[in-house]
Amino acid sequence: xAFLQTATKRGVGRPPTHPVDRVRTxxxxxxxxxxxxxxxxxxxxxxxxxxxxxxxxxxVNRPRKWDAYxxxxxxxSIKPGPRNAIAQAEARFPGAxxxxxxxxxxxxxxxxxxxTQFQKAxxxxxxxxxxxxxxxxxxxxxxxxxPKPFDDDRAQQLCGLGSFDAMVAAVLLAGLAEAIASQELxxxxxxxxxxxxxxVRQIPILQTLAPELFLLIDLHCKHWAYPSxxxxxxxxxxxxxxxxx
Length: 245
Prior knowledge:
By secondary structure, this protein is mainly α. It is 51% helix and 8% strand. β1 (8-9) and β2 form a beta hairpin.
């Protein structure tokens, strides 16, 4: 059984790199390869930072930052600037940045607190997910749009989408359930997440990273059991043992 590594230091005086950020960065690079059609970190570097690559008589001197992103050993900065890697890539090959900024990572790093934050996070996902889970218009001017009841039928529709964002929505709904102490929503959301894994594993770009991604979620998004009316136990169900289809 695989286990996540603990956070590692990036250098003297630098904060440790969170395991979530390592998987997040590698996933972003996978999507960047998909949208760009480029097969390697070197090809991405030549496309985006080719001016920094110096060909010498015996070798090639290059920064190799994209190699580090591909391995997850270096995390791109989110600070604005002419060499912001995420912005560089998005300007040339739009579509990958949304995966780096998915609200899933905020949840896994405990940065989402309270029902309102979870609902707003879900509303940043792809339109098909949002329209399935939220009303189209607010009840009145100045009011937020209302979530639709997450019943069995809507859970099956979410599973039918079979996308990365559909899985993220199920995980965030489990977080929302914890914020509002809803056992019913928690069970339905986690069951939906487990069912969606079968579809997500089949997305070619996610096949390699899926075990690590699911382990991050499994360790954070625990199932509840009640040995007695006054006692709640948290249980980790490892996705490695789940059927793959």
